Structure formats: structure tokens, C-alpha cells
């Protein structure tokens, strides 16, 4: 019999945040100790500690040495943002997920990418282009740049097996994110990859993340026609 998979720190964070938002833990409440939460969720104490760090950074809880962890008095009014795992997004819609690596190469970041990262000197980065599929049909086309200075481990990841999107979400916490929405008309290559017609209007999401002042990744995600962006709490 296979043992159940251990929860990741993002899984633990999402569970605790859900308990805060549904008022299992009320504003001002003192949360259970990290070791008690770890025992309750069946994970390592270090996993809970990492989840709590993130909840503190996004403004849901306050941690004090010897004072424990408390839910802040206005957690729901604070802005939070989660970078979605595309595989999970597709599977939650009831579709089968797959992804295809189009290209992977070290390239000098162009001016547009340097501007997104707020850099003034050219830097060699890992450029990854990939196509996410739902039930075998194009879903999202990613053009991603990753700074190996902040994220050297990505150079050893088999991106034909693991999507850069999922690996980064699970392994590279960020302290700042910039998100922009726009539209574009499909060019010849984009239309071919997304199985649409040249000139089709397409929804575009650009996300850039940093850890401190160090760039992590910036991605232009172009969605196939019919894509719907959903948000819920």
C-alpha cells in the first residue's frame, strides 16, 4: 500500500489560510503551536514554520518570539496573491493535464525583460518556452525567463517532465510579485501553437517575481481562446 504524500509548505499555508478566512481561526485568535499543527496535518514542523513565514509576509498572521502566532485583526482586507499551478487549474476544471517543452536555452535577457526585472545591465538567463494542454488541446503558452543567480537549481530540473511553472511555485518562495493583464493579436507562431487563427484576440498575463531585490522569474502567459480567469475566496 502506498503511503499518502506529505504535504508541501504551500499545501499547509493554503489549509491554514482557509481556516482563517472561514473563521475557524478568528481575528485575534492565537493559533496552535507549529508542532501541534504539524501533528494535526501529518507533516514536518519545518513545513509548518515555512508556511507560517509566508502567512506572516502576506499579512494574515503575526508571529512573536515567545508570544506565539496570532491572526491579525483585519486579515481578509489585506491583499494576497497566489501564483496558480497550471496543472492544478486544469485538473480542477475536470480536464486531463499535459505540457510540452518547446525550448530551453541560456540567452541574454532583452531590454523588455530587463525592464520587467528593473535591471539596467544585461544578464544571461534561462529562457523556457512551454505549452500547457487541457484534454490534449492548447491551454496556455508560456514564454518564461528565470534568473539563475537567484534560482540556480532550475538548471538541473528536467523541464520535459516538470513544468517550470509548477517547480517554481513549489520550490521558490517570493517576496514581491508584479502582475499585469493585457490583450494581443495572435501572430503566426502563436496562432499555430494555440490552434487558433492569425489575428485572434488573446488574453495575456505577465507575472514577475523577486526575492528581496533579486529577480526570480518573469513569464508572459498567453491563453488560448475561451480561457476564463476565475478568482474566489
Span between termini: 36 Å
Helicity level, as a percent range? 25-40%
Instruction: Give the class from helix and strand content and strand pairing.
Output: alpha+beta
Overall number of strands: 8
Percent strand: 25-35%
SSE pattern: HHHEEHEHEEHEHEE
By DSSP (H or I, 4+ residues per run), the number of helices equals 7
Characterize the largest beta sheet: strand count, sense, and whether it forms a barrel.
Answer: 6 strands, antiparallel
Strand order of the largest sheet: 3-4-5-8-7-6
Low-confidence stretches: 76-80
Radius of gyration: 19 Å
Instruction: Give the overall form.
Output: globular
Overall pLDDT confidence: 89
Description:
The chain has 233 residues and is of the alpha+beta class. The chain contains 7 helices and 8 strands. The strands form 2 sheets. Strands 3-4-5-8-7-6 form a 6-stranded antiparallel sheet. β4 and β5 form a beta hairpin. α1 crosses α3 and α2 (34-41) packs across α3 (45-57). It starts with 8 loop residues before the first helix and ends in a 10-residue tail after the last strand. The relative contact order is 0.12.
Summarize the structure.
The chain is of the alpha+beta class. Helix content is 27%, strand content 31%.
